[in-house]
Amino acid sequence: MKFKPNQTRTYDGEGFKKRAACLCFKNEREEEVLLVSSSRHPDQWIVPGGGMEPEEEPCGAAVREVFEEAGVKGKLGRLLGVFEQNQDRKHRTYVYVLTVTETLEAWEDSVNIGRKREWFTVDEAIKVLQHHKPDHAEYLKRLHLSCSPTNGNSLLPSQPSNDNFPHYGPLTTGSVLGPSCR
């Protein structure tokens, strides 16, 4: 673990920083996704998420991060996948689907750092994420794959090692995967 002001970074046994995030959708049709402005680059958009705290489960961290960064609450759905980024930093991010049920007028990051949020269609979000955060664009590309006739339960091969793409393993199967895409 590394300590930062107000944050404890946790790492898994392979040295990957443990992270969690949510693709926050306006409704169960999963057509519009909520992105937030980056704290480092306020003119760029990102998927809300961040580091897991010690003893925190990935699903709990994902919900907490979305509340802090995007000011929304909702119904947590399926685990979309576990994504690895090896190029700049070693991150392993658990990405969930969340259907938004409550949107706060003001929230922690909007007050403290002026973070903004905006709804995008999935295709628009992929385009705006592609240049600044291509690993986040991959989350949304996986969403399309998980809406396949196999209900997202098939194992996908890991991407070959290439500095231009994040590395991710197979989808986690089991009861954590919720209903299929509608």
From TrEMBL:
Residues 151-171 are annotated as: Disordered. Its EC number is 3.6.1.52. One of its GO terms (cellular component) is nucleus. Residues 151-164 have a biased composition (Polar residues). The keyword Ubl conjugation does not apply. The gene is LOC115180270. InterPro entries: DDP-like_NUDIX, NUDIX_hydrolase-like_dom_sf, NUDIX_hydrolase_CS, NUDIX_hydrolase_dom. Residues 16-142 form the Nudix hydrolase domain. This is diphosphoinositol-polyphosphate diphosphatase. One of its GO terms (biological process) is diphosphoinositol polyphosphate metabolic process. Its cofactor is Mg(2+); Mn(2+). Keywords: Cytoplasm, Hydrolase, Magnesium, Metal-binding, RNA-binding. It is found in: Cytoplasm. Belongs to the Nudix hydrolase family. DIPP subfamily. It catalyses: diphospho-myo-inositol polyphosphate + H2O = myo-inositol polyphosphate + phosphate. It comes from Salmo trutta. Gene3D superfamilies: Nucleoside Triphosphate Pyrophosphohydrolase. GO terms for molecular function: bis(5'-adenosyl)-hexaphosphatase activity; bis(5'-adenosyl)-pentaphosphatase activity; diphosphoinositol-polyphosphate diphosphatase activity; endopolyphosphatase activity; metal ion binding; RNA binding. The lineage of its organism: Eukaryota, Metazoa, Chordata, Craniata, Vertebrata.
